[in-house]
Design brief:
alpha/beta, Rossmann fold, Coagulation Factor XIII, Chain A, domain 1, six-stranded mixed β-sheet, 9 helices, 18 strands
């Protein structure tokens, strides 16, 4: 069945399983004990996956490690075949999905450029004409005569990506290309992606970077446990993925602590707003964010929040009791306003409502809303999590 001209990739009810071998049963005893048992277990990597990528889409695939994202990309790229269902590709596809594919570690960087180029369909004359640009983009001029096995993983990624972007292709498939290179290389990648987006080239990308998903993608899917959990706009998928990570982090906490919190845990009405009172989950560096909490319980005398990175790292945790803010008997709402002088990335909120002291917890919510901080002008010019007010004095 032929594809509609507007469709670049069609994935229809695809499933994939792998056979994972058990420990060796080569001994006579092992064979006798396990005579009627299979020597492997079946792992379902993908279960009934269906979606379409249209020509010109910048299509994001997100999910935690082990969810099946990379397996899906390898199937789209023709490396794995489907156990069930079908994958149809309309056009030439170039994958950039696994470090070392198309390279020979015993050859020099120079020889690998020509080898990899040949695999992409270039002849030697074409590769010779592109060679200087490839090396300059990868910033590897001093290393091209060294064997590839002596390259760091970051150097290999830079070289491979520099070659891949020269390919005359209809569809480019990428797996976490931004996860290995350094900051300077990532900026070059982003510039290339901006060019792709401007000329509406079809891109399929796996990434954990939700800022990137929102900035570049026009469509996205969220994969969890081998299934598509959600399909939607990049913003919707980014927020759902961030919230899912919050829940996963909470489940990993000390069991005794969770049982204690479960007794008093309940949803708190929390909103994230701009300084104008507009609901929003995306802010530029330095903008003011308002966290609004509401309740009906007159016993509540103080409130607190915690701002955390998606990794669970606590950035700041203020509360009204310590800041000597007193509630009266009619207080049912509190706004916490904060200037977001923080590094770009995904964050989330925890909240607590307290009695007369900050030790008497009445309500607790560790699965509060998420928000995103972006660099104000597209670039972050400092390191660390937060930018502190400071002065340099030269003497």
């Amino acid at each position: 069945m032929s594809l509609n001209d507007n469709i670049a990739i069609k994935v229809s009810h695809v499933s994939k399983s792998f056979h994972l071998p058990h420990e060796s049963q080569n001994s006579i005893k092992g064979k006798l004990i396990n005579f009627n048992k299979r020597g492997y277990e079946v792992q379902e990597a993908l279960k009934d996956i269906s979606f379409e990528v249209h020509k010109g889409d910048f299509f994001g695939i997100v999910g935690r490690n082990g969810s099946g994202k990379s397996t899906l990309l390898k199937m789209i790229s023709g490396i794995y075949s489907a156990d069930e269902g079908s994958i149809q590709i309309n056009g030439k596809l170039v994958p950039f999905i696994e470090l070392g594919v198309g390279f020979n570690p015993e050859l020099s960087g120079r020889d690998n450029v020509f080898l990899n180029g040949a695999l992409l369909g270039f002849n030697r004359k074409e590769m010779t004409e592109m060679y200087e640009d490839i090396v300059a983009f990868a910033e590897l001029e001093r290393f091209m005569d060294q064997k590839l096995k002596n390259y760091s993983s970051g150097m290999q990624v830079r070289l491979a990506f520099s070659i891949a972007i020269r390919a005359n292709t209809d569809i480019l498939v990428l797996d976490e290309v931004l996860a290995v290179g350094d900051e300077a290389f990532q900026k070059k990648c982003i510039a290339i992606f901006e060019q792709y987006k401007a000329r509406k080239q079809t891109i399929v990308l796996v990434t954990h970077d939700m800022n990137f998903v929102e900035k570049f993608c026009n469509k996205a899917i969220f994969i969890e446990d081998g299934k598509i959990k959600s399909t939607g706009s990049p913003t919707e998928i980014a927020l759902e993925y961030s919230d899912s990570n919050n829940l996963s982090y909470a489940k990993g906490k000390n069991e005794a602590e969770l049982k204690k919190l479960e007794k008093i845990k309940r949803d708190i009405d929390i909103e994230i707003l701009t300084d104008k009172g507009i609901k929003q989950n995306r802010f530029a560096f330095g903008e003011t964010m308002t966290v609004r909490m509401k309740w009906d319980d007159a016993a509540i005398k103080s409130a607190g929040i915690a701002i955390l990175k998606q990794s669970g790292e606590n950035i700041f945790a203020p509360n009204t009791y310590q800041d000597k803010i007193k509630f009266n008997e009619n207080t049912r709402t509190v706004d916490y306003e904060v200037e977001l002088n923080m590094s770009e990335g995904d964050y989330y909120i925890k909240a607590g409502l307290f009695g007369k002291t900050d030790k008497k917890i009445i309500a607790f919510d560790d699965e509060g809303p998420s928000f995103i901080v972006e660099a104000k002008d597209g670039r972050q010019r400092w390191g660390g999590v937060t930018k502190l007010k400071h002065v340099w004095k030269i003497k």
